[in-house]
Design a protein that fits this description.
- The structure holds 3 protein chains of 3 kinds.
- Chain A has 16 helices and 12 strands.
- By secondary structure, chain A is an alpha/beta fold.
- Chain A has 2 domains: 45-124 and 226-348, Periplasmic binding protein-like II (D-Maltodextrin-Binding Protein, domain 2, 3-Layer(aba) Sandwich); 126-220, D-Maltodextrin-Binding Protein, domain 2 (3-Layer(aba) Sandwich).
- In chain A, strands 2-1-3-11-4 form a 5-stranded mixed beta sheet, with helices on both faces.
- In chain A, helix 3 (58-67) links the parallel strand 1 (45-50) and strand 2 (74-79).
- Chain A is globular.
- Chain A starts with a helix and ends with a helix.
- Chain B is an alpha/beta fold.
- Chain B has 7 helices and 10 strands.
- Chain B has helices at residues 49-57, 96-100, 109-122, 138-151, 168-185, 196-202, 233-245, and strands spanning 6-16, 22-33, 38-42, 64-69, 72-73, 81-84, 156-160, 188-193, 205-209, 216-221.
- In chain B, strand 7 (156-160), helix 5 (168-185) and strand 8 form a beta-alpha-beta unit.
- Chain B is globular and about 50 Å long.
- The mean pLDDT of chain B is 87.
- Chain C is mostly helical.
- Chain C has helices at 3-26, 38-49, 59-91, 93-106, 115-121, 125-150, 154-162, 167-202, 210-219, 224-248, 252-255.
- Chain C starts with a helix and ends in a 7-residue tail after the last helix.
- The mean pLDDT of chain C is 87.
- Classes of the chains: A alpha/beta, B alpha/beta, C mainly alpha.
- The interface between A and C is large, with 44 and 35 residues.
Chain lengths: 360, 252, 262
């Protein structure tokens, strides 16, 4: 009698596991996983982490492109819901690379995590948003009020610091509060803050809902604003420079393709919104087109003067205790030698990334 | 069934109490029980009878003295010398059959089921083989306890006020059954009680014990043949004697 | 209370809740901040029950299966290791002296605090959550089992050793069955804890599951209707899991240990 019970429990557990494989990843990837554990798969591949924000758009774009091509390495994108878990996976080696914002990347390096920033992800793409009915006309009007920022290690805070300098103010003249970006539109609407500064699509969300309006786009204040970039583990760089170069080529190429025109951006919005971000493609469309230069995906090479300015601001406001040398956290060689040709992304085929992979 | 001969020599026991004082419970206990005898330990509650039985059963150690069973010194509990506890000593998750067969693990399946069936019948619980203790009355549960101990056909039975939790009507019935069963199988029986009538109805000899620190006041033989009756002259005479030994008045 | 009442009373309360909820939630000005109305949640199920792009089967099914799968495996591991360990801890005075302090110190640590460690040790998403569930359920099971062992009446132990059973036999044939009612009660509690923990764990460390669904709904633009819809599903599943375990309590080998009604 006892053995029957044990058998039933074990059988039930195995059936549950099988059901889980069937519904989540499918048997194809599971078999590949097993194969990979016991001896390499066919194509080179690397997993790159991202968050479902517009800044990281090139990541899923590259994933889609490499899945739909017959040759070349496969750069699989992996979606995270927050930076801390992604940073830990990157530190542990579960990820080969990830899209992080620049101060976060610098802070990892300062903690002796051996990673390097090899490319930027985009330029601009942030804004200060105030309630639709607010009377504020410029940054100065927000003095003394509550402003939400995404994190202590955010570029948005650096932008604010720069704005302060330009207007003769101090960061302490404002009440900055850290808030997760998805919650920001709600906080604005309930009047819990006077404004928020964050990257897209959280500014567009408030605009489209009619509850907020953009006070200031970063492209009009600090053009070429750097926010997120691609960070790669040093051991992967040492192991296979060509693979990293291929990845950076893909990022730059996709970025150039996105800059070529609105139809490309529309196509990307469709694919990324449906299959990767699980966001309404119309939202992404809005961010990528109104205005068309709200976010830019060219000039993705990290340059020393830009970062010197960033580091200077960071140290001034106490984000970092001292300046870190550009070369200590950046390896710009890949970006400098990246291909200058746009790389087209295949259009939506209605099938989704997993099925595309299984077909290979 | 073989029976054990138990010799108790010079047993003494004290317990350490809170505060470091020592409480003397048993003093200079000395007696012999012959094989097949039914002996009662009679005395007021709390005088140490249970402790003595525990020591004889091998669950506790005496501070002084020796206990010998069939010539060999006592080393610990033994399945040949089995306790019968009060009725809540049977296992509530096992059926009557499973309880009665509990000590028979070493036997083959056939012999085991034969014995279980035999002893369930002997205690009058035929038909209740698959019942759970929760479904039985107190008296029936006591019978299960008895059957469980008798099923292993022990050389000695140690009973510590087994009928204490039962009402007086059931108790009387159980006394008759225990007496009959023991006279049939003839194990050596050591039966602890504070009930004078109970001792008189069951025992071949009664060891009368004092209050704490317990020592033996007297060992009284009961030479009345079974069936024994309450009101008869020889019964009453010994009863008066017991009252006197215990320092009690037999009138209210 | 007759059967009709038994069915109608809960339905009445449910209807009352939906009515109050509708009135309360409709009083807003519209927009992302207002609590969704029951109708909006109902419509949200249209999204949850349809397949995701490029996949088959209802969207929510794969997340339900993931969460249930991880909880089950973690819980089974906790039971399989926790009961024997608890029996040992309760039985052996030496084991108790050496290890009880450690058990009591680890117990108050919320399983959520173990998330960074889980991420560090385990590479697979599933393994991480299974580990967290194991952590959540293991110690409560150990503690209850060990307590149950301590409360086994010594009369049973005496009887068992009197009949010549070895220590191991006593554990197996007396201590374990005598502790079973208390252990099963503890299993119900541990399962409840596990289900709560899996949702929290999935908000952080993994890429699918019911907890992840809730987090993802925020990135879609504060889809609180999906959030509430998922919460209802989580509640229903938890209720189902608990009912399943309640049936265990009715087994005769277990029910003897509970006081009888009526």
């Amino acid at each position: 009698m006892k053995w029957k019970l044990l058998g039933a429990v074990v059988g039930g557990a195995l059936a549950l596991y099988a059901l889980h494989i069937t519904t989540s990843t499918g048997w194809g990837p599971w078999v590949e996983d097993v194969k990979r554990t016991f001896g390499g798969g066919a194509r080179e591949q690397m997993i790159v982490g991202f968050l479902p924000v517009t800044c990281h758009l090139t990541c899923p774009v590259v994933d889609w492109t490499t899945r739909h091509s017959d040759s070349g390495s496969l750069f699989q994108s992996k979606k995270y819901s927050e930076f801390p878990t992604m940073c830990e996976d990157l530190t542990e080696g579960k990820l080969g690379a990830a899209f992080l914002n620049a101060p976060l990347a610098i802070s990892l390096v300062s903690k002796n995590v051996n990673v390097k920033l090899v490319s930027l992800g985009h330029r601009d793409g942030s804004a200060i948003v105030v309630p639709a009915k607010s009377e504020a006309k410029e940054f100065k009007d927000l003095v003394g009020k509550k402003i939400l920022i995404p994190s202590k290690f955010s570029n948005q805070q650096l932008w604010m610091a720069r704005l302060c300098k330009q207007n003769g103010l101090k960061l302490t003249d404002f009440e900055t509060i850290v808030c997760p970006p998805p919650d920001m539109p709600a906080m604005l609407e309930t009047g819990k803050c006077a404004a928020y500064v964050v990257g897209e699509p959280f500014c567009a969300l408030a605009e489209l809902a009619g509850t907020g309006r953009v006070l200031l786009q970063v492209k009009d204040s600090w053009p070429g604003f750097i926010s997120c970039g691609l960070v790669v583990r040093q051991d992967r760089i040492d192991q296979d420079r060509e693979l990293i170069q291929e990845l950076v080529d893909g990022i730059h190429g996709s970025g150039l393709w996105l800059e070529q025109g609105l139809e490309n951006r529309a196509s990307a919005a469709e694919v990324v919104g449906k299959y990767y971000y699980n966001q309404d493609p119309k939202l992404l469309q809005f961010v990528l087109s109104k205005p068309v230069d709200r976010v830019r995906y060219d000039h993705l090479t990290p340059l020393k003067p830009d970062f010197e300015e960033i580091m200077g601001l960071a140290v001034e406001i106490g984000m970092f205790p001292k300046v870190l040398e550009f070369e200590s956290f950046t390896d710009a060689s890949f970006s400098l030698s990246a291909s200058k040709l746009p790389k087209a992304m295949p259009p939506d085929d209605g099938k989704g990334p997993e099925t595309a992979k299984a077909a290979k | 069934m073989a029976s054990a001969r138990i010799e108790v020599r010079g047993v003494a026991k004290s317990f350490r109490q809170r505060g470091g004082r020592s409480l003397e419970v048993l003093r200079d206990i000395d007696f012999t029980i012959e094989a097949g005898e039914f002996v009662c330990l009679l005395g007021p509650s709390g005088c140490g009878k249970s402790t003595l039985l525990s020591i004889i059963g091998g669950f506790e150690k005496a501070d002084k003295g020796t206990i010998t069973v069939d010539g060999a010194p006592l080393s610990g509990p033994d399945p040949r010398r089995v306790f019968v506890f009060q009725e809540y000593g049977i296992f509530p998750w096992m059926s009557v059959s499973e309880n009665v067969g509990f000590g028979l693990g070493a036997l083959g399946a056939e012999e085991r089921s034969r014995r279980v069936a035999h002893w369930i019948g002997a205690v009058g619980l035929g038909g209740f083989e698959n019942a759970l203790p929760a479904e039985l009355s107190g008296g029936m549960r006591q019978r299960v306890a008895l059957a469980r101990s008798l099923a292993v056909e022990p050389e000695a039975l140690y009973m510590d006020e087994p009928l204490g939790a039962l009402d007086s009507l059931t108790r009387q019935q159980m006394r008759t059954e225990i007496s009959a069963l023991c006279r049939r199988s003839k194990p050596t029986v050591l039966f602890v009680t504070h009930d004078i009538d109970e001792a008189l109805l069951l025992a071949d000899r009664i060891i009368v014990m004092s209050v704490r620190p317990a020592h033996i006041i007297e060992i009284v033989p009961v030479a009345i043949t079974h069936p024994r009756r309450f009101g008869e002259a020889d019964y009453v005479a010994i009863k008066r004697h017991l009252y006197r030994l215990l320092g009690l008045r037999d009138e209210v | 209370m007759n059967r009709l009442e038994r069915v109608l009373l809960p339905l009445f309360v449910a209807a009352l809740i939906i009515a109050v909820w509708s009135v309360w939630a409709s009083g807003g000005s519209g927009g992302a901040t207002d609590f969704p109305t029951p109708l909006e949640v109902w419509r949200g199920y249209g999204h949850l029950l349809r397949p995701a792009h490029g996949e088959h089967g209802p969207l929510i099914l794969k997340h339900i299966v993931s969460s249930v799968f991880r909880t089950s495996f973690g819980f089974l591991a906790a039971v399989g290791l926790g009961i024997p360990f608890g029996l040992y801890l309760g039985w052996s005075a030496r084991a108790h002296a050496s290890l009880d302090w450690l058990v009591q110190m680890l117990r108050p640590i919320s399983p959520i605090a173990w998330i960074p460690i889980a991420i560090m040790i385990f590479r697979g998403d599933d393994l991480r959550s299974i580990f967290l569930i194991f952590v959540a359920a293991f110690l409560p099971i150990v503690i209850s089992t060990s307590a149950a062992v301590h409360s086994v009446p010594s009369m049973y132990l005496r009887a068992a050793s009197n009949f010549g059973l070895s220590d191991f036999q006593i554990l197996q044939r007396v201590v374990f069955p005598a502790s079973l009612p208390q252990i099963v009660l503890a299993l119900r509690v541990a399962a409840g804890i596990s289900w709560i923990v899996i949702v929290a764990a999935e908000m952080v460390a993994v890429q699918d599951g019911l907890g992840w669904l809730i987090t993802d709904a925020r990135y879609q633009g504060a889809r609180t209707d999906l959030v509430v819809g998922t919460m209802i599903v989580i509640g229903l599943l938890g209720w189902g899991i608990d009912s399943l375990l309640r049936r265990l309590e009715r087994h005769p080998r277990v029910s003897w240990g509970y006081p009888r009604n009526g």
